[in-house]
Amino acid sequence: MAQEARAGVRGEASAVVASPSAEDCAGLQRILAAGGYPSRAATTPEALLDEVLAARPDVLLVDLETALAYAGSLADLVAEHPQLARLPVILLLPEAGTHALPDAVTPYVADVVFRPVTPAELLHRTHAAVARQQRHQQQRTSSARLREEMRRISARIRATNDPAAMVDQFLPAVGRALGAHHLVLQIFDDERVAARSSTWTSDRRPPLAAPLRVHQDASLALALRLWEESSSARFSTGVAVPAVRDVEAPAWLCDRAGNGSTVSGVVAALGEGDTPFGLLWIISEETPLAWSGVESALTQHVLGNLAHGLIQAQLISRQQQAVRKLSALNQAKSDFVGTVNHELRTPLASIAGYLEMILDGVGGELPPEASTMLQAVERNTAKLSELIEHISAVSSRDTDASEHGPVDLVHLVSQLTGRAVLQASAGGITLDSALPDHAVTVSGDREQLSAALAIVLSNAIKFTPEDGTVFVGLTHEPDEGHVVVVVRDTGIGIPPDDLPRLFESFHRAANANQVLPGVGLGLSIAKKTFEAHRGTITIESSLGVGTAVAITLPLLNHAPVG
After folding, report:
1. What does the record give under GO molecular function (predicted)?
2. What is the pTM assigned to this prediction?
3. Could you write out the DSSP letters of every residue in 274-298?
4. By the 8 A CB rule, do 558 and 481 touch?
5. How many domains does the chain have?
């Protein structure tokens, strides 16, 4: 009898017996000992708690009188000692004890035994309570292990943007975690993901072929149903087992299972948003797959992570393809512009050279009319050369911020003003500057910054009449984290209507109904350059008074440096 009572109980279980009567305790202990349960006794409510906390028993047998002594404090005791909530309690009731138990005691009672106690009944109920508790503990341990496995699977999904790698890591990990023999992942034709079917088979078993596209319609209908119900479904082949079948097994699985064999499992939908785009078939051979609410919830969770990962991977793949196409187009454009510029510069240089020689009289003296016409040709040749240079600058690639390096702006502006002195003097213009006597360093591409600043300075000189003034200043503001370069002139000014469009490509301002000279690309190039260096350019101007250009650039310790 004792051996039968102990069958199914894993390991040696112990007990604590509580009763006001020491004789009653001793009798209960003898019965438990005969059944293989070592026990300890407590005859007072105070001693009971100490014994339970010290012995950590697998079951507690407590007399009703002792239990009632704890009725008012049970909730506080369980809150203080959470392990008590999982301790199975068998309540020993008096022979005529049919009255209702207090509500505070009832939730903690696993079973009751009426007196007089018979050894067989006591051992049977003790064994059942211990076995039930051990099963619950095993389930909790299994659920905790499965949760950790699913967490690792989700982390591996998030660690890659390759859809094939996601699926290759997902299938074996989920299959082993759930104890399945086969996993089949069907992904349908959908704009969010690429269609594919993948399988996994456990070791030492023949592989299972993936379903074909002809099976997609039936699978899609099932996926829509499961997605709408937010549930999974069980299936089986061979002998019908209603208790483990919610849906019919798919035709492709029945064909592969063969006549007379039984294959069962669970199917769940895969998707995101309002519609699914796939199914996961979890398959077990011969015996039905164990499937609880925990397995279902965790599988649905990790399927959600897989669906999100596949969608993101598809988006990233499309973005990468678009970037590659754009890069190829940009390279083709740059190559084309470079070729055109090269092919145009050579004949233009030859034309400009011969024009200069003709105008200098190398080929003989020219009539005044011919000289005037050739001078017009020379001016337009210079404009065409300038236009080619601007187009080349606009089409050139922006340098990445990681390629920027330190640039001493004081030295750069000093060089530019030194070169512009001759141009200013030739037009009768005074060029002044006020620069710090120490280096002011920004992060950037020196050649690009030099070209952009030169455009601004050249414009100031070009549109300032004789006897005018051009001033270049640099204000260092370390507390604000930037430096400001100011170019101010006493030139003809810019009409208010043209100020908002100054930085548009090929826009040229008009003054007194006359379009100003130039091709309208310089300021567009300058703005593009300064913004690529995380800076700004602003212009203030008044007709007949002059123009002020302010360029702001972040200092080196406030800008990205390669």
Report:
1. ATP binding
2. 0.54
3. TEEEEEEEEEEESSPPP--HHHHHH
4. yes
5. 4
